[in-house]
Amino acid sequence: MGVMDTFYISHGSPTLSIDESLEARHFLKSWKEKVWTERPKSILVISGHWETSEPTVNVVQHNETIYDFYGFPKPMYQLKYPAPGAPELAKRVKELLVESGFRRVNEDKKRGLDHGAWVPLMLMYPEADIPVCQLSIQMDKDGTYHYNLGRALAPLKEEGVLIVGSGSTTHNLRSLRMENETVAKWAFEFDDWLKEALFNGRYEDVNQFDKKAPHAKMAHPWPDHFYPLHVAMGAAGEKAKAKLIHHSWSLGTLSYASYQFTPTS
Question: In 3-state terms, what secondary structure has residue 20?
């Protein structure tokens, strides 16, 4: 059975893995009951935490849990998400990208899952029994490039693959409000602009967010946590309908807005 919808999940802080006070944690834990009840054949995650110069897939039989965060509570480093790898999916991703004109697609035969993948998946599919593959982002490229990356992956949906972009709708770690959690004006305005652009199908504006969106550089000093959104958008198709499936804030500037993209004829 196909998985025709694609998703962009804001995973925010790594503490999502243990912090019961975060609304986004409870949203992800309700995933199978409230968001997507069908079991995918496999999962492809595009995470903001894997940057390479060229598109790269991890081709492994078993996924190791990568603790790519520092200075957090000890229990977080004891969590495991031992999902099987998806080497056949990885090869298929590579095939589709090459066919679509991405000349060089690399294979990483050692890398497991970074926290942009395993933290949300641990909540969404806690049994860790669905094969997972990751695809990297390219920081020297733009939103349109990553949108086209997603377009190339569209056939995967009919093959039962759940495509998930994992990032953060706003991601300026230097602006977090530890004492005052009132939502910052710039964060609210960027978040609201994105919602309206997606609801109205203005995907080209979202591709050019750095030129079109208010406070784009403040919301994303670096675009690593935003490019996964472009991949999910592209994979859904240019006429896809966007739906806001979760919205909450943390530390005044961290938006956990998450979206579902449903293709329309």
Answer: coil
Strand 6-10 and strand 42-51: pairing?
unpaired
| Helix (H) or strand (E) segment spanning residue 244 | strand 241-246
CB-side neighbour CA atoms (13 Å) of 214? 12
Our separate counts of H helices and E strands in the chain read 9, 10
Rounded to whole angstroms, the Cα distance separating 104 from 109 reads 16
Whether the pLDDT of residue 53 is over 90: the answer is yes
CB of 227 closer than 8 Å to CB of 55: no
Q: Which two tokens stand for residue 233?
A: 């958008």
Q: What letter represents residue 1's amino acid?
A: M
Give tens-digit pLDDT for 230-257. Answer: 999 999 998 999 999 999 999 889 999 9
Whether the Cβ atoms of residue 232 and residue 150 lie closer than 8 Å to each other: yes
What pLDDT, on a 0 to 100 scale, did the predictor assign at position 244?
98
Q: Which helix (H) or strand (E) holds 245?
A: strand 241-246
List the Cα angle 47/49/53 in 5-degree steps: 95
Measured distance CA(23)–CA(25) in Å, rounded: 5
The pair phi, psi for residue 30, each rounded to 5°, is: -95, 10
- pTM value is 0.97
Q: What is the pLDDT of residue 172?
A: 85
How far apart, in whole angstroms, are the C-alpha atoms of residue 159 and residue 176? 40
Indicate whether 265 pLDDT > 90.
Answer: no
Alpha-carbon separation of residue 65 from 8, 14, 149, 210 (angstroms): 21, 13, 26, 33
CA atoms of 239 and 162, how far apart (whole Å): 19
Question: Which of 133, 116, 124 lies closest to 42, judged by CA?
Answer: 133
CA distance 254 to 107: 33
